Amino acid sequence: MEGDKRVRKSRILVLFGLLFCTFLCLNPGFQQFVEFPEQNLTQNQQLEPQFHGLWARIIKEERVVSNPTISVSSRGLDSGISEKIDVVYKLFGIFPIRSGEIEVMPPMKLIPGGQSIGVSLQTKGVLVVGQAAIEDKAGHKVFPAKEAGIEVGDTLLKINNQEVRTDQDVSNAVNLAGQENGVAHVIYKHQGQILEKFIKPLFCVETGRYRVGLFVRDEAAGVGTLSFIDPVTKQYGALGHVITDADTNQKLEVYNGKIMASTIYAIQKGKRGHPGEKIGSFVTNSSFSGTIEKNTITGIFGKLRGQLANPYYKEAIPVGWESEVKEGPAKIYTVIQGEKIEEFDINIDRVMYNRTDSKNMIVRVTDPRLLEATGGIIQGMSGSPIVQNGKLIGAVTHVFVNDSTRGYGVFIQNMINEGINNKEAA
């Protein structure tokens, strides 16, 4: 009899366990808990239990000061800290099930941009963008630099111990090396490594100069959109994505650069398979200008001088951190004619949390006026600020080639982290 009772008890316990596991698996709150991501909260937000039937206990850790993630706006973007807390989830307030880390972000206010800007950037070194054949005395086509191992995408830094910063510097140094000793000692960057080669310049009958057979470029220029300005430090962020060379798609290392006002005088409308673009020119007597100090995965950054304003936002507005970005309607600010900033409706169709690049949300243009004028998102619109629920949450970065009404946006949090607080970024 006692044996039968033990068997029945065991069966009841097993059945209870199966029912309990089934309840947990079907419970939406528990499913959300299983997928628990790292979170961000602002200092004004309250941490609330997100999982039904679970209880959260907050354990405060030491403040992070060695590598701050976000800074306090009232003291400028170069100071201030975030706070990290550990969250322990317990079943019925007793059994620890899972823990996670939440970063509490200090409040910050920025002025949304929207201004059309002209961007001029000079690279560190000179970028190799192509190979050029040289015809020798026998009529053969020769590629001296290519044969020595120089590739498209490499950056020339020095020739015979002389720094080269322009295409003319390269041409003159190579010609001089050919005249003097017939060998050019080249120091260059290849996939992040500093290497050196000895190249023998060849005399080109066509140009009457010694050459090594390379096409090079030392600068880039274009039109984009300003994303934000810090009213305290005058630091800005723009574009929302890295500037790359048009031929090699390589990131351009900044030696010197500037931004200024630009005016848009025509629009090339986007259509399926062919992204449109803004056609503009630099404003000679620009009311503002700025340095380019960093070219990062989430945009360009520097300091502004002069006067500029967004007619929709006379004062700075709160920053919306990653955790505050939601699917649904939002606004963007950009220029499609002259220098006038206009407001347009978009929808955030999808949010990809915890990504650190410039593709954090999928945005869709819903504004009939913008669709009629541009077909959706076009080149030159990169950096257009995105505002949702009164907070600056991001900027437009890319367009879908096969659907110009949609594209990507970057979290403003990522722009701040990568461009302002990351002292190593360049």
Automatic annotation (TrEMBL):
SUPFAM superfamilies documented for this protein: PDZ domain-like, Trypsin-like serine proteases
InterPro entries per the UniProt record, alphabetical: PDZ_6, PDZ_sf, Peptidase_S1_PA, Peptidase_S55, SpoIVB
Superkingdom per UniProt: Bacteria
Peptidase S55 domain residues: 193-426
Gene3D superfamilies: 2.30.42.10
NCBIfam families membership: spore_IV_B (TIGR02860)
Protein's name according to its UniProt entry: SpoIVB peptidase
Organism: Desulfosporosinus acidiphilus (strain DSM 22704 / JCM 16185 / SJ4)
